[in-house]
Amino acid sequence: MSIVITAFERSPDGGKGLARDTRLRWALEEVGCPYEVRLLSFQAMKEPAHLALHPFGQIPTYEEGGLVLFESGAIVLHLAEQHAGLLPAEAKARARAISWMFAALNTVEPPILELANARLLERDAPWQQARLPLVAERVRVRLRQLSASLGDGEWLDADFSAGDLLMVSVLLRLRASGLLDEFPALAAYVARGEARPAYQRAFAAQLAVATGH
Amino acid sequence: MSIVITAFERSPDGGKGLARDTRLRWALEEVGCPYEVRLLSFQAMKEPAHLALHPFGQIPTYEEGGLVLFESGAIVLHLAEQHAGLLPAEAKARARAISWMFAALNTVEPPILELANARLLERDAPWQQARLPLVAERVRVRLRQLSASLGDGEWLDADFSAGDLLMVSVLLRLRASGLLDEFPALAAYVARGEARPAYQRAFAAQLAVATGH
Q1: Based on the domain organization, do B55 and B95 belong to the same domain?
Q2: Considering CB atoms only, which of A55, A91, A121 is closest to B146?
Q3: Are B125 and B177 contained in the same domain?
Q4: Rounded to the nearest 10 degrees, what angle do helices A72-82 and A21-31 cross at?
């Protein structure tokens, strides 16, 4: 059954791997699933044909036979349920790994998105410089707790899982801010994620779209 | 196997049902699982005993035999996997319902959290009044798309699911802002969620903590 995902024709980050198709490419590479990519312009993302696949007009989407999914978290979970390699087989460890998936997306990513909005969307607002430290501190609270929980562990809960895949993907969005470097254990954790061959292949594939090679 | 969840001893909302234990109580009521509640002070939430259960020092947690979970989204998914009533049996419909769970928590809730931060945490900031309309507009973009997707449907995808449970819970946080009333189809959708007997029981149980009855 062939798999088709969607991605930006021109990613706003110019190929830094921060668009959400990278999470999905990484998961597909971890489980060894070949996939095709349909690239979309910003205009095409807001048209009825795409809105029928993704109610919020975003990327990525996932098509496999008659199944259409949206939301990168849901798609990573779907892949993890269908293939070995992204969730432990033991029931309790599996449920804990899923807790980490939701923690990445609903506890750690929201303040990171808020910081990105403060940096980019409110670039020209008169309050930007005064407000940025407040927002950065909300992110630091979460990073401090995450770093304490990770301790000197390699991954969040024993073996690498979909929880790590999403957490590393979310933390990567912080690199430009310098905040990640304030937490060496987290910076090393993110580097371990990036060093995985599956991540390397995913990163190269999204970069190839940006560079045209 | 007895189930124990944690909740605020004194919820910051004074019993309006907006704390995340309500989502969990609602799911437990939908699937007919009895549960016990351990109430926590703000101080106890930051102590090592609780941090061992919840790395981010929040509520709710979920304990069932030797299993300990955190993140309300993960716990609702765990309950939905173990019991009938929150996810469709058919594989494609089940995966779509899980897409809606992630959409509630990773696409719709982040701008709503940002609005709550702007209203509460930045109450005394000199930029608050000038900035609030910008943040409200980010929420409206999502509500407009969600309303278009819902159309005149009763629930997001055929029957009521864990996706609706989380989406209604997230939208309820908007009531005080008045934004929900700008989208009558969404206001009616939320009201349908609140009218479910399981929600009524969950709401009454969290209110009883606040009122002491």
Answers
A1: no
A2: A55
A3: yes
A4: 10
Nearest to A73 among B106, B113, B145 (CB): B106
Residue pointed to by tokens 């704390």? B19
Q: What is the pLDDT of residues A93-130, one digit of tens each?
A: 999 999 999 999 999 999 999 999 999 999 999 999 99
> What is the CB neighbour count within 10 angstroms for residue A48?
6
Looking at this predicted complex, what is its ipTM?
A: 0.97
A23 and A98 fall within a common domain: no
Spatial distance between the Cα atoms of A38 and A27, rounded to a whole number of angstroms? 17
Residue A189 half-sphere exposure toward CB, CA atoms < 13 A: 31
Q: Which of B56, B67, B142 to mutate to test the interface with A (most CBs of A within 10 A)?
A: B56
Same domain, yes or no: B26 and B7: yes
Q: What is the pLDDT of residues B151-165, one digit of tens each?
A: 999 999 989 999 999
Q: Which residues of B102-128 are buried (b: 16+ CB within 10 A; e: fewer)?
A: bbbbbbbbbbbbbbbbbeeebeeeebe
Amino acid at B58: Q
The angle subtended at Cα A192 by Cα A152 and Cα B74, nearest 5°, is 75
